[in-house]
Amino acid sequence: MKPELTHSLTLARPSRRRVLQQAAAGAALAALGAPRAFAQPAPLKVRVGYIADFHGCSMVAVANKLELWKKHRLAPEVKSFTNGPIQIQALGAGDLDFGYIGPGALWLPITGKAKIIAMNVVGFSDRVIAQPGIKTLQDLKGKTVAVPEGTSGDMLLRLALAKAGMKLEDVKRVTMDPATVVTAFAAGQVDAAGIWYPHVATLKGRVPNLVELFGNQDALPKNSFPSSFVMRNDLDAPASAPLVDAMIKVIKEANDWRKANLAQAVDAAAALIGAPRASLETESGYAQYYTSAELSKLSADGTVAGWLSGMNEMFRTFNRVPELVDPARYYLGARYAAVTP
Fold first, then answer.
1. Fewest 10 Å CB contacts: which of 98, 160, 161, 256?
2. 3-state secondary structure 78-126
3. Spatial contact of 333 and 295, defined as CB atoms under 8 Å apart
4. Cα(331)–Cα(326) distance, integer angstroms
5. CATH code of the domain occupying 44-123+225-338
6. Cα(68)–Cα(265) distance, rounded to whole angstroms?
7. CB 191 within 8 A of CB 161
8. In this structure, what are the phi and psi dihedrals at residue 208, rounded to the nearest 5 degrees?
9. How far apart are CA 242 and CA 248, in angstroms?
10. C-alpha angle with apex 336: 119 to 115, nearest 5 degrees?
11. Cβ-defined contacts of 260-264 (< 8 Å, 24+)
12. How would you classify the pairing of strands 211-215 and 126-130?
């Protein structure tokens, strides 16, 4: 090989050190340009209860539809219950984290069995119904009346009797779960019942001439009937703040979407619980809905406290609670208002 060619090749060949430097620089640039991978926190496990009617399950149904659980990093286990008191029992036993209760079960948070984290709706879906031929509340004297224990149906029966100048002892009150109430009333085994839609709609299909003797609106304006979302008492602690705040975010977003898309919320609820859409649509009409912003304002201005205190007074007359309790002791209204989805 000619000397000048050898010299040329020697000049063209980069040194080992230079190669390593260039490789290191390239790797650094590649690292700067590549997206960084951060470890995402694992979703928080949460156990949520609901009741298989529109007001009791629509929040869960909407959260499922919109994937709000995933959005707020929750891994839910949802479970259906027949009424609010059973959910409160599950909360107390540590078998449930959050649940839904109707107005009839509000005496349980009032007496310290759970904390309310959010309001749901002010409902008008409860009824005292009777078999054909019974025309007035006074006609119930001595008759058999079925109610689910400690529920809004039980509460409404007591209110109805009081308005009619009667006592609970004037009727033969028997307690059953809601499905059994429907079966017993349809079979004519009881004379009357304290129950709510959509069960009333179901019974109208089986006993077309049943009589509606009393409803929530008959107790207005003295009594309002709010339903709510509750949690275990021990979750009201700093260590549980991420879980509680995430749950409130899910509730707020689902609530606002439901109010703006009521028909679609009915579809989602019917799919969740396998119920006839028509009966849930009827039930959905028996409520006053509020946006989350409105509920925050009503919590701050004392309106919600007034609802709860009115229920407290009523439960005291029923001997379910011994005293009037400041709603701030069991309703986390300020916490609800402070959480932003």
1. 256
2. EEEECCHHHHHHHHHCCCCCEEEECHHHCHHHHCCCCEEEEEEEEECCE
3. no
4. 9
5. 3.40.190.10
6. 14
7. no
8. -60, -30
9. 10
10. 65
11. 262/289, 264/65
12. antiparallel
CA distance 186 to 230: 33
Q: Is it true that domain 126-219 has CATH number 3.40.190.10?
A: yes
Q: Of 228, 207, 226, 219, nearest to 127 (Cα)?
A: 219
What secondary structure does DSSP assign to 145-157, as a single string? EEE-TTSHHHHHH
Please tell me whether residue 19 adopts helix, strand or coil conformation: helix
For residue 194, give the 3-state DSSP assignment: strand
Backbone angles phi, psi at 123, to 5 degrees: -100, 155
Q: Sort strands 226-231 and 98-101 into parallel, antiparallel or unpaired.
A: antiparallel
DSSP 193: E
Domain with CATH 3.40.190.10 in the chain: 44-123+225-338, 126-219
User: What does the pLDDT profile of the chain (341 residues) look like in tens digits?
Assistant: 444 333 333 334 445 455 445 544 454 444 445 455 566 789 999 999 999 999 999 999 999 999 999 999 999 999 999 999 999 999 999 999 999 999 999 999 999 999 999 999 999 999 999 999 999 999 999 999 999 998 999 999 999 999 999 999 999 999 999 999 999 999 999 999 999 999 999 999 999 999 999 999 998 878 889 999 999 999 999 999 999 999 999 999 999 999 999 999 999 999 999 999 999 999 999 999 999 999 999 999 999 999 999 999 999 988 999 999 999 999 999 999 999 98
For the entire predicted model, the pTM comes to 0.82
Q: Are 271 and 280 in contact (CB under 8 A)?
A: no
186 and 179 Cβ atoms separated by less than 8 Å: no
Tell me the sheet residues that pair with 101: 228
